[in-house]
Design brief:
The protein is an alpha+beta fold. It has 3 domains: about 5-50 and about 110-225 and about 265-285, no CATH class; about 290-410, Alpha-Beta Plaits (2-Layer Sandwich), CATH 3.30.70.2510; about 415-515, Alpha-Beta Plaits. It has 17 helices and 19 strands. Strand 3 (about 85) and strand 4 (about 90-95) form a beta hairpin. Helix 1 crosses helix 7 and helix 7 packs parallel to helix 10 (about 245-255). The protein is elongated. Keywords: Coiled coil, Cytoplasm, Isomerase, Metal-binding, Mitochondrion, Nucleus, tRNA processing, Zinc. This is tRNA pseudouridine synthase Pus10. GO terms for molecular function: metal ion binding; RNA binding; tRNA pseudouridine(55) synthase activity. InterPro entries: PsdUridine_synth_cat_dom_sf, Pus10-like, Pus10-like_C, Pus10_N_euk. Belongs to the pseudouridine synthase Pus10 family.
């Protein structure tokens, strides 16, 4: 619906008299023309006043000049003024448009009794410029954006009261008004603010870069508290929430409460506030970026992730930190999430082509990097420590991270283990290991990881082994295994929890001294 029709006339008169702003009047008349909402507020109010003047003189049309679509004409006729309900359920007389200049005076109320000023001052160019200044000073790289807005929960209560008022008025004319037919406040605000912000920032409006405005209205913040009495099961304490009166909880309660109960607690029409809403926060947030590559670990005293036990840090650094600290600095991100294809123990080196890893960078300010800049960043990481090296560092998609994790247990991994035996061995004693192919193991969850892994028996396969004799008590074993195989436990047996194992195959006690992922 692009303009008002005859049936909207009494609604316009009623809402204007109760202190509702022109844009909210358009919303409750279900006007869906976005350009109409973008008309300057003063022009909208002036046109409505002109209409009222013309209406008193017997004319029934007022023109709102809009660039696109063409001029909207609102046709209105006289109607009998009607009573309304107040918060005690009694009828409250609303001043008539025809009562001298009453409507003119009421229409100049500074703060709208429905939107609390959201569709008034906060749609003006000064506030748009304030938001733009905040965005530009935040230091983000972006080529487009998306706009979001957070509104005080009590606005839903006031909207319900105004809807009941309009619904009653339309009922007198044999008409109905569904709650879902009203243009939502948040939607109307975006219609007005989004194009202005896009023009001021000079970028289109669609991307992972989000600009959001959080509004509050301290004067009326207790208005929704009666719902906790009427619908107590809708309000439950939640973690990380300062108040139980969240927008969703209030909406849920409003859907549940009966109309007659609502009118007992809340005035209809809603009272006019003294103050405008306040913009508590203007926030910027970029969508996450993902950096992937492979790492080699050359230290036998470096965990993959920070090693903290009972709140106490055991080692000063980790693979994760040595890589991420440089990415965080260059991308100017708030935080990160590290993931990899498998993990190695603190005393295990990772050699060969390296282990695939990915880092999610949360809310990065910088998002554009050339291939040469990524190579330079990789070199910076490699020059910072002799404990790790990275390769193939690149920007990837979220979907690529999922593929890194796919089929982890079907992958084949190659290891080199330095093994000690309690009894003396000769080269011939270990030669038979080279002939074993596709050896099936049953591995109970190792004792060393039982505190963080569920107890289970996992079937794993040793594809091939190749032994290399060193001396009477030492030999090196090269293994190709199914990913997820516990190599240390395959060597020493973990008190019989891994069967078979090198100790049982050699018929002697065996232990592992060094392990490398090749």
């Amino acid at each position: 619906m692009s303009s008002l029709t005859e049936k909207d006339r009494p609604v316009v008169q009623l809402l204007l008299n109760t202190g509702t702003c022109p844009r909210c009047i358009l919303r409750f008349c279900c006007v869906g023309s976005q350009p109409l909402y973008r008309c300057p507020y003063k022009d909208l109010m002036k046109d409505l006043k002109e209409f009222l003047k013309n209406n008193q003189e017997g004319e029934g049309t007022v023109c709102f000049d809009v660039a696109d679509p063409p001029c909207k004409r609102i046709r209105l006729e006289h109607a009998e003024e009607g009573p309304d309900l107040n918060h005690s359920g009694a009828l409250q007389q609303i001043p008539s448009v025809n009562d001298g200049n009453t409507a003119m005076e009421n229409s100049t109320v500074k703060v709208c009794n429905v939107c609390l000023g959201i569709l008034q001052e906060f749609c003006e160019a000064d506030f748009v410029k304030k938001v733009c200044q905040k965005v530009n000073s935040a230091g983000y790289q972006f080529t487009s954006f998306v706009f979001s807005v957070s509104l005080p929960p009590q606005l839903s209560v006031r909207e319900r009261a105004a809807w009941l008022l309009v619904k009653q008025e339309m009922g007198k004319l044999g008409l109905s008004l569904a709650k879902d037919d009203i243009v939502q406040l948040k939607e109307a605000y975006k219609w007005i603010f989004h194009p202005q912000l896009s023009e001021e920032l000079g970028v289109p409006a669609t991307s992972l870069f989000e600009v959001s405005v959080v509004f509050a209205h301290p004067e009326t913040e207790e208005e929704c508290h009666f719902l906790a009495t009427a619908c107590p099961d809708c309000f439950k304490p939640a973690k990380n929430k300062q108040s139980v009166f969240t927008r969703m909880a209030v909406i849920k309660a409003l859907e549940k409460i009966k109309e007659e109960d609502f009118l007992k607690y809340f005035p209809c029409p809603p009272s006019s506030p003294k103050n405008l809403c306040v913009a508590l926060e203007i926030q910027c947030n970029n969508g996450a970026l993902f950096v992937a590559g492979r790492y080699n670990k050359y230290s036998r005293n470096l965990p993959q992730t920070p090693w903290i036990i009972d709140g106490e840090r055991k080692l000063e650094s980790s693979v994760e930190e040595l890589i991420s600290e440089h990415l965080i600095a260059e991308f100017k991100a708030d935080s990160f999430n590290f993931s990899s294809s498998g993990r190695e123990d603190v005393d295990v080196r990772t050699l060969g082509n390296g282990r695939p890893f990915a880092i999610e960078l949360v809310n990065p300010r910088r998002i554009h990097f050339t291939a040469e800049e990524m190579k330079g960043l990789q070199q910076t990481i490699n020059n910072s420590s002799d404990k790790i090296q990275v390769r193939d560092l690149q920007l990837v998609t979220r979907e690529a991270i999922g593929r890194m994790k796919e089929g982890e247990e079907e992958k084949t991994k190659t290891y080199s283990a330095l093994i000690w035996t309690d009894k003396a061995i000769q080269k011939e004693d270990i030669a038979f290991l080279d002939d074993i192919k596709e050896l099936k193991l049953d591995q109970k969850t190792p004792l060393r990881v039982l505190h963080r892994r569920p107890l289970a028996v996992r079937c794993r396969i040793i594809h091939t082994m190749k032994s290399q004799y060193i001396d009477e008590h030492h030999f090196r074993l090269h293994l190709k295994t199914q990913a997820g195989t516990y190599i240390k436990e395959f060597v020493h047996g973990d008190f019989g929890r891994t069967k078979p194992n090198i100790g049982s195959l050699l018929n002697r006690t065996a232990d592992i001294l060094e392990l490398d992922v090749e």
